[in-house]
């Protein structure tokens, strides 16, 4: 839950966005075709997994902005923090079902960014021991 929104998911393939102060329904997100298996949200976006897809939604207007994954067996976990997202899915590869981790940087050029950008980008230049030399 964020201070501005509460999101619920259901076996009827929908996510619902609520105003936590008034209890008013703000949006019904209904592009999945199977039960929602996982989701996470902040005040700007929600990522939801179901039916072999992982979807990114814009909570400000309730629109589906992008299918991040399609054609997979299922998504069973999604986590994001700021511009980074990690999802665990099951995929068929060479006739065997395997667990795969997918990572996105939403701040990369060409990616949809829904939310406020982070305060800055860390380039690693002030991290001690970040090279091949041994740490003291």
Automatic annotation (TrEMBL):
The keyword Transferase does not apply. It comes from the Eukaryota. Coiled coil: none annotated. WD repeats lie at residues 1-28. InterPro entries: WD40/YVTN_repeat-like_dom_sf (IPR015943), WD40_repeat_dom_sf (IPR036322), WD40_rpt (IPR001680). The keyword Repeat applies. Keywords: Repeat, WD repeat. Residues 111-136 are annotated as: Disordered. This is Transducin. It comes from Favolaschia claudopus.
